[in-house]
Amino acid sequence: MSSLLALPGTEASAATGACPAKGRIASGYGWRTHPATGGKVFHYGVDIANTTGTRINAGFSGTVTYAGESGNLGRHVIINSSGVITIYGHMNSLSVKKNQKVRKGRKIGTMGSTGMSSGPHLHLAVKEFSPSPSGGDYVNPTSYFKLPC
Questions:
Q1: Is 59 helix (H, G, I), strand (E, B) or coil?
Q2: Closest C-alpha among 147, 143, 139 to residue 57
Q3: What are phi and psi of 5, to 5 degrees?
Q4: Which of 17, 22, 29, 73 could pair with 59 as two cysteines, CB 3.0-4.6 Å apart?
């Protein structure tokens, strides 16, 4: 993990996140065969499968930097939590808006199958912030969340 996590006031740290959603791990972080395209790709998150409408919670307190719909992730939410960015994709409904402050464990929406998806699930991704053009590096969400929960 980056040294950013040692800064005072940084809440997000190893395996301290609130449960983002109940369900089974359908796909882990790393190389896999893409379920929709069949191609070999690196999966930058963890897919938690359950039924449409399953509650999705903020893993950490922070600020919603995006809440909307676009591309492969469909409806999704991005939350910046003092240097750790969490991404919640393929949502059925959103319960938050851009620039809204959220608390750890608060409902941010429900599970769905929007965007490029093969069934209802939450795509959970984590980036450790950096000032680089990419905005940071993806890391395995299990570094921040005890999954499944």
A1: coil
A2: 147
A3: -70, -15
A4: 17
